[in-house]
Amino acid sequence: MFPHAVARRVRTFVHIEAAGGVVLLIATVAALIWANGPAAGSYDSFWQTDVTLFAFGDFELTDTLGHWVNDGLMAIFFFVVGLEIKSELVTGELRDRRRAAVPIFAAVGGMVVPALLFVAFNAGGDGVGGWGIPMATDIAFALGVLALLGPRIPSSLKVFLLTLAIIDDVGAILVIAIFYTAELSLLWLLVAAGLLAAIGGLRRVGVWYTPLYVLVGVGVWVATLESGVHATIAGVALGVMAPAVALRPDPNQNAIDRDSTIDDIRHVIFDARETVPVTDRLIHALHPISSFVILPVFALANAGIPITRDGLADAAGSAVSIGIMAGLVVGKVVGIWIAARIAVLLGIGTLPDDMSERDVVGIGALAGIGFTVAIFITGLAYDDPDLVEQAKLGVIAASVAAAVIGAMVLRRPAADG
Questions:
Q1: N or C: where does the chain have the smaller number of CB atoms within 10 Å of the terminal CB?
Q2: Predicted model pTM
Q3: Domain containing 143 — which CATH number?
């Protein structure tokens, strides 16, 4: 893919994520108002409403509305993440391993150090299982803050943050799949694997009928859900399996002459559309839905924390809250800066010419905005409502602090522009 095409895709991605971050913030505030206002009692009762998605004989998919948001809608979000990972590996920034080396190293450091800090505060305690919470970065909020800083921020910083966040997503996916998985059902895992293999077979024989892929994809999601592996992993697997190449038609069929019929012209127009990589087409279609619908609904369903004086006091003295804040606010900065520095010193990669070490620190601070995925992992890590509340308060407080610190470090004076 040509550099200008990559730049255009990054700009589009950043604009959607930045705008989505604003909508996500509005949904978060709405959830907090709902959970602490006159209708507070209806918040839990609404999201705890039982919903049956499917029933056939003795088999049925029934759970709470909040559960279907986290296991259903978020599977689509992670499907888009899988598409972005595949696209970046094949045609994007991750294709050039040397250019991607520093943000990849930085992302790993930004996951390991926060987890270690959290464990240091919670070793031997009931909350130690939440070590994966401060590893996450919320790319929508982070890019939203970067966008608010204006056009003086070099595009290289946005690309660096985007690459870092994608690797961060890969890490979060692995953590969820390996460490936050319930008891496994081998039979359902085999069904999921068989359906994924069927998708690969359909691709190889050249079947591109979209409804068939949707049907098999839903089957993969159901089988993964029943297997005990978190259902969002199905979304990632399906996204990564999508072809990152264009389905190019026979060029001899692309001619229009005076004898061409309306159907011929339509065929040529359709074929022109098929020259766009499948992953890019799917991202273009689903990314706005993910940013403007799925993530705000997730925030509305999960960010409604009752805020009381006693609750705040408990969180302030909680090792869970302190560990999350230390991990996101301090651990992200330290881990990303040290890992990036090591990568540069070892000659593994280089920073862009217009990016300084101060910028690396600022990006590290913004990466401490862990909101969406951090809250998502909270729900997987804890069953105790008190620990869940303390963790969510810690995530929100840390994300606000990280956003402010990151903006202060990265802010450019007007004279620099």
A1: C
A2: 0.78
A3: 1.20.1530.10
